[in-house]
Amino acid sequence: MSQKLSPMTALLLTVPPLLWAGNAVVGRLVSTLVPPITLNFLRWAVALLILLPLASWVLRRSSGLWSHWRRFALLSLLGVGCYNALQYLALQTSTPLNVTLVAASGPVWMLAIGALFFQAPVRRAQVYGATLSILGVLVVMSRGDWTQLMAVRLVAGDLFVLLAVACWSWYSWLLSRRDEPDAIRNDWAAFLLAQVVFGLVWSGLFAGLEWTLTDAHITWGWPLISALAFVAVGPAVLAYHCWGIGVQQAGPAVAGFFANLTPLFAAIFSAAFLGELPHLYHALAFALIIGGIVVSARQ
Question: pTM for this structure?
Answer without folding.
Answer: 0.79
